[in-house]
Design brief:
Radius of gyration: 24 Å
Number of strands: 17
Helix content: 25-40%
Amino acid sequence: MKSRITVGMIGFGTVGCGVAKVLLGNAEVIRKRVGVPIDLVRIADLDITTDRGVDVPNGVLTTDAQSVLHDADIDIVVELIGGYDLAKRFMLTAIEQGKSVVTANKALLAVHGEEIFHAATAAGVNLGFEASVGGGIPIIRAVTEGLVANKVTSMVGIMNGTSNYILTRMTEEGKAFQEILQDAQKNGYAEADPTFDIEGVDAAHKLALMVNLAFGTPVNIKDIHTEGISSLSTLDIDFAREFGFTIKLLSIAKYQDGEVDARVHPTLVPSQSPIAQVGGVYNAIHVVGDMVGDVVLYGKGAGSLPTASAVVSDIVDIGRNLLLNIAERVPVASYQWGRRVPVRIRPIEEISSMYYLRFVVRDQPGVLSQISGTLGGQGISISSVLQKGREDGAPVSLVIMTHRSSERAVQTALQTINTMPFVAEPTTLLRIDEGAVS
């Protein structure tokens, strides 16, 4: 039996520092739970001179990543550099060397996951990526192990802490998107380039992984309809509140009629619902299994130590496997490799939903009748109407809430309405979370 488990890490940034702190600071409790020490023996990074506030032993730091990948004494390689090409090469090299791999790189797995999953399966090594979704929330282990007896029917949740932080402050303080974004960047809640977070890309990467694991199907990230929050205005947040809703950036996946409805977009949820209460950088994911029913996981979706907690949970899990000389106790993609079947991802045009539509129109007679007539011509039924802003002939906001309608019908109607002479700017369309409503 091995006397210890050795770990080499590539990347010593925010998460890497957290991993070092967890492994070094909780070394004794980890040893008691595993049975042998888990030793961090090598850390590779381009910058090994900056003081990161972590006291690592002498000889651990190196600028040579290859020394981690090719060291025969290292059992587990942890990839924490992010990005695509270089991270992918590092992971595949480690796998080729017969090493188990842990990563938090959801973007890489969402785009190149099939290649990496196949390589790990063929090599018979362990691959852990709990930290790639939900930060410190153990959502991947919940789906692949805790809910293994269930057919998952849906997953709906907040999977990006940055966007949730921005929306929470916009809702509570009434400030504009750009102002809150700048504060988020100053406070370290948003990257210098926040595009992946605010445009829904990060959430889509995570959703692609979860669809893969929950439904046993490879996913092309391009098939997941993705919208962000950068165009949301406080006006829409205020209107939503008047109707009893709160706006959240939701990741939605539902298995229906042999297909998967998977999408990311701003969504109106009832203000009294649990998901509406999730504020700041927190994440929450609601999973429904056919046997267990509703399961909700909630926690910090980002940050050095919460994410590091998830990384180390993978290291411990793999360490236990190595002590027993086993791999693939849980298949890397949740389902046995030969049992995974491609499932069609339903295009956004084929979904149906309830809708919030905000028209900016010139205040003149017959406007509402023309809009409602066009909607009705597409079979779209109106549930509520609210108008505000009437003064001095300036354009006014007219908000219409619909009953459940076809996305294709709504988009067709809007194409016509947006060309009408009284429409001052393109219509704002937001979907309503029907699951939370019912």
